[in-house]
Specification:
Layout (H helix, E strand, L loop, with lengths): L4 H9 L8 E4 L3 H17 L4 E4 L2 H9 L13 E7 L2 E2 L5 E2 L6 H9 L1 E9 L12 E5 L4 H10 L5 E2 L1 E2 L2 E2 L7 E5 L7 H9 L4 E4 L1 E2 L5 E6 L2 E6 L2
Parallel strand pairs: 1-2, 1-3, 3-6, 6-14
Antiparallel strand pairs: 4-5, 5-13, 7-11, 7-12, 8-11, 9-10, 14-15
Length: about 220
């Protein structure tokens, strides 16, 4: 049986959780394992923590597992957020949003003293862009917004949920964009966010404090230089 690399990375990252912390919980298959491990530590070590989640899905899981939960609207700062990523480049810039929660994920990450990203080794790339870049847009005037994204070179496609557009927890849509190789993610992120109708984009530039990479031989940590 092959080792679960996401679980290996998640369990390593959760070692940074300390008593008294406010924790940000990410969304997706990797964050799932981190939430389970945090719950184990709460039960076994009686950690007095509280956690806010970046999606309804993660909030429900945290509550089911007994993690003390607090709404993001009730906190001023987060000590540590643990989340996954769809791609990580050599400078620890990220593409996120494959799970559809990029806006809330970015809100939590930006408010965190430490933002730790957990991935398996397949998510490491020299340059971002092989994974389609999620861009959260408002439904109103979506064709106009898609036209702007197309002019920017993104070749956008609305993410679907069956025969309807996928709807985020904030009531928006996701346009998955294929820009190809993204050599300057900071510039692209800025240009995307200047488009009316764009709420946020999945480029997390200079935000990760550390990336924990899960491998068959264990996990190792990449720190931002």
């Amino acid at each position: 049986m092959e080792p679960n690399l996401k679980k290996i990375a998640a369990e390593k990252a959760v070692e940074w959780v300390e008593d008294g912390m406010t924790i940000g919980l990410g969304t997706g298959s990797t964050a799932y394992w981190a939430i389970h491990r945090i719950a184990e530590r709460v039960r076994n070590e009686r950690l007095a923590i509280r956690a806010a989640a970046s999606s309804v899905r993660s909030e429900q899981l945290a509550k089911e597992l007994g993690i003390p939960y607090v709404s993001a609207d009730e906190i001023d700062r987060i000590d540590l957020t643990i989340d996954g990523a769809d791609e990580v480049d050599e400078r620890l810039n990220l593409i996120k949003g494959g799970g559809g929660a990029l806006l809330r994920e970015k809100v939590l990450a930006a408010a965190s003293d430490r933002f730790v990203v957990i991935v398996d080794e397949s998510k490491r790339v020299a340059t971002l862009g092989a994974f389609p870049l999620p861009v959260e847009i408002v439904p109103f005037g979506s064709r106009l917004t898609l036209g702007e994204l197309r002019e920017l070179g993104g070749n956008p496609a609305i993410r679907m949920d069956g025969d309807r557009p996928y709807v985020t927890d904030n009531g928006n849509w996701i346009a998955d964009c294929r820009f190809g190789s993204i050599s300057d993610p900071e510039s692209l992120a800025s240009r995307l966010n200047r488009i009316p109708g764009v709420v946020e984009n999945g480029l997390f530039v200079g935000m990760a404090s550390a990336v924990v990479v899960g491998t068959a031989g264990g996990a190792f940590v990449l720190n931002r230089s």
